[in-house]
Each structure stands twice: as structure tokens, then as C-alpha cells.
Amino acid sequence: MDEKLQKVLARAGVGSRREMENRIREGRVTVNGAIAKLGDRVRSDDVIEFDGEPVKATAVDELERRVIIYNKPEGEVCTRKDPEGRPTVFDRLPKLRGSRWIAVGRLDINTSGLLLFTTDGELANRLMHPSTEIDREYLVRVMGTVTEEHQENLKKGVLLEDGIAQFTDIVDGGGEGINRWFYVCLMEGRNREVRRLWESQGVKVNRLKRVRFGPVFLPSKAKVGRWVEMEDDDVSALCELVNLPHRKVDIKSQQEVHDRKRQRGSRVSGSVARTKRRDKGFDWQSGSEKQEFKPKKPGRRSFR
């Protein structure tokens, strides 16, 4: 193994690759007792330490990679510690030994729904990188008049303060009166991008929930504030999407199966690729689906 230091640190679960680049610049990483610098490469027999603690350099084909799906409620922030004392998305995640959860992207404090977490910083980095072109799907309720012209503008592209932005697809979800529901898709995750796009057309977003990230749908068993863990087959499919090899975990005994389930808590099967959206709406108070709201089925190209 001869790889960039920040890549090895990210794969070890210390943080994302970008975070590790910053920590190297801050002088918090050493290799064989010497302070590391950005651009250093390391081998499997090098001694790596982060803040004085040893970091195990694991080859990509030896890594035990875990991924969980979290249903974020409104009011939580996507930071590990908040100076204002607000609850964070990390507060309710399962505890780990020797690694930590890394968030795949962010949702703002007033947005709920699907967040992915992984123990592998390299997987997180690839899933977030723009070159991967993974689409995100949101269920959004807007207040105001939305015309066909507005929808065409949003699909063609709108100039925001940080550049051109657009939805790749918009599906009318129905609704009555001044409030209407839509499913929208976009290929990136800029700060408050969904809200800013709708605001550019003179309407306001008053509910926003992410329901899909690439092939991963928010499963019905993941209630608000709860997490479920993806099975190895689904993790493999997710890794294949970003050309990352995945070693399936070999559990040899029934006792190991029992211990692993106790450690990991709730699990979800078939969350990647095979999951089908239910043609229902959401009860925003409880986080569960309700029958009376029945949006149109989205098109296959963007939403299946």
C-alpha cells in the first residue's frame, strides 16, 4: 500500500478526506514520529498518529465498512458539537469503538429526512463528490402560486448567488389551497439549494424532507429520529455505484450473528436499488406516511 495520507486517514474513519486535509495542515498528524504535511504518502508499515492516538492503516479490500440510514427530524444540526447547545444528528447514532460515524452530506436545521452515515471516509468522499453525479430527491411543500412557467424555469436553470442551479425533474404531488406538494430532484447539495430555487420563483418552502439519496430510499421503518443499518449486500451495491471494492463480513457462528445484531440495533434489507416508493404522503408530526395525500407517481428516469 502506498497512498496519500489523507485518504488512509479517511478510510480509517477518523473523518472525511477534506477534514483530514485540514487536520494535516494544522499539524495534528504524525507519521513515524514526524509531523506530516499535505501530500505525504504512507505505506502499511508506517506508524500514523492523529492527536497522539495511533491510527490503523487498513487496505481498502480489508475494511469492514458500515452504513446507516438516519431519519433526521427538524431542529437537529449536522455538526458533532454545537456551540449553541442544539441537538445534533450524531446524538442518537450507535456508539462505535475505534472509529466514528461520518455524515454523507448535510441537511439544514429546518430540513428533515434521509441522511447517510458511514465508518469509511473514502466512501463518504466519493458519494459526495460532484463527479459521481448522484441525485437527491425531496418532498417539498410550497406556499404560493406555482405556474407551468415557474416549473420550466426551475428545470432550465436559475442564476443564484453561487451560480446556476436547477432541478432535474419536478413532479406535482397535489394539494389544495395556497399549499402544494412536489417531488423534486437535483444533482448536487449546495446550502439551502432547494429552498433558494423555489424562492427565486416568488414562493416559499414551508416543509422539506429528503426521501432519496441516489439509489437509497428512506425506509418506512426508519421513523423520525431513528436509524437503520444497511445489510452487506446493500452496502456492496452502494460501493459499486462509486467504484469502491467492498469486503463482505464473514460471520461464522450463530453467536456472532446474535452479538452483531445486538451491537448494531435495527437493520434494513433491500434499501438500495430494490426499494419501491409508496404512493403516499407523510404525516409531518409523527414522521409516518398517511393515506389521504396521494401524489402522482414520479417518472422512471429520475426517481426509480
UniProtKB/TrEMBL annotation:
E.C. numbers: 5.4.99.-
SMART domains: S4
Keyword Protein transport among record annotations: no
Full protein name: Pseudouridine synthase
Job description of the protein: Responsible for synthesis of pseudouridine from uracil-2605 in 23S ribosomal RNA.
Chain ranges of the RNA-binding S4 domain: 3-73
Gene Ontology biological-process entries: enzyme-directed rRNA pseudouridine synthesis
Organism encoding this protein: Marinomonas piezotolerans
Catalytic activities: uridine(2605) in 23S rRNA = pseudouridine(2605) in 23S rRNA
One Gene Ontology term of the molecular function aspect: RNA binding
Taxonomy of the source species: Bacteria, Pseudomonadati, Pseudomonadota, Gammaproteobacteria, Oceanospirillales
Any one GO cellular component localisation term in the record: cytosol
